[in-house]
Amino acid sequence: MVEIIDGLLTPLTYAFIQRGLLAALMVGVLCSVIGCYIVLRSMAFLGDAMAHAVLPGVAIAYLLGRNLTLGALAAALVVALGVGLFSRRGAIKEDTAIGVLFAAALSIGVVLISSIRTYAVDLSHILFGNVLGVSSLDLWLTAGLGAVILISILVFYRPFLVISFDPVLATTLRMRVGFFNNLLLVLLALTIVISMQTVGVGLVAAMLVTPAATAFLLVRRLPIMMALAGLIGGFSSLIGFFASYHLNVASGAAIVLTATLLFLLAFLFAPQRGLVWDLSRRDSA
Amino acid sequence: MEQLISVYGFNKRMNSSNVSAAGPQTLPNEPARLEIENVRVSYNGQLALDDLTFQVAHGAHLAVVGPNAAGKTTLFKALVGLVQLKTGQIQIHGQPLGHHQDCVAYVQQREEVDWRFPVTVQDVVMMGRFGRQGWLRRPSKADREVVANSLEQLGIADLASRPIGELSGGQQQRAFLARALAQEPHILLMDEPFTGVDFTTQEATLELLEHLQTQQVTAMVSTHDLTLASERFEQVLLLNKHMIAYGPPEEVFTAPNLSQAFGSQVLFLDGVAVVDQCCPPEDEIR
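Output (structure tokens, whole complex):
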């Protein structure tokens, strides 16, 4: 038994693996906590679009010789604000606006990256993450931005709660609905950029949605849902990370699949909302 | 009751500034507190409200009656600043809209709320206090008392810690009324509070309105129910994009007025007007 645990933990003797695990844990918790708002506000599609917009952002920043992280952040925000602009006039619905911009951003990214031959290797790292390539600077950046995001969610808990549950009330209470909507989008963009290296832009939407959806099935109050989602996200990162090392598969995918497994368990067995609960109640009725 | 009266500090101010400390019975002599002037609202080029002008006296209770898509919801949304006016202006207590937004409570239609959201009844009612608290301050003892009183008054104190989604439709509506009460509004707007609710909730809503009238809170309530409007409200506004009639129910609910508002939906059987709500032509524009 001791040998098995030793064997499992062996990779932790390497510093780059320790860094990878820490980054994966932070991203797992962060995505899942902010993901509660994504799930409750039905913003999953927008999150996905913002994540894919990171691709052209990174490519343009690379071409201009600028910081890749800043390029990614700027691109995610441009898409978020663009969606707001396109749908605000009421001519088209929001999900249509997202669909248009999402595909456009991804295409620009692919065009740019395929034209930069030297950079093509790193495309898969952006799409699926490269958790073992996390530098200590990356780690500090993740920790710093992660703290900013979590503290913002805590401090602005009430306005975020009200604009999410009842924007009409928020307006009548003279809350600055537009400002807080945009702030939430900025926090979401930051989260996506941080997650880029760990789970990759192709899978970050899953980390934003899956653990939060699992928590939603299990509890009935927002603060508890956030705490539980963070726990589930962190746990998925931990399990997924070790699974990816020992099975030699992509870390982002392993983390997302772990989270998906937990979701399926909750979907089946959650008290009152689970499938099994439904069936057993039908039988006894 | 005493506790609730004491929290409406606004009334004391009103009484001291008014020449006559008149009760709600002498309303017509009071200065108008809610003024709607030449208000037009349009959606995608279609007029939803057409040149609406009327005043609601301070403390008056008004039923807003009209067919679907008559602009009842639009009127309420205009009153809380949720839709832009194409022309005209709205004044509350003599001030343009925006100065007094926190004194208007709006209870929207049940369908507009996501009932699966993970909040308890208590959480929902406490939201009514957020406008007064700022972002960071914890709820004060006074806030908690107002919330507890509001829950008590709507008869849902025992449901306080239940998730909002586990309540019946009527209980959910009462939770939202409790929240409106916790906002300590000067003006209360209720959009179709009697549609699809049980008798208990209907009576609780009417009782709340009566109680608020003693507090001189102005109320506007939209409803399909002509009988209820004529029996329980002293003033009725008949609306179909433009104002058709406004006044006491016996003057407003005449055959020509009702035909003008409801068109072919209204039938006259032995001198009694019956409105066919079974097949409304289209959904009300939101």
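Chain A has 14 helices and no strands.
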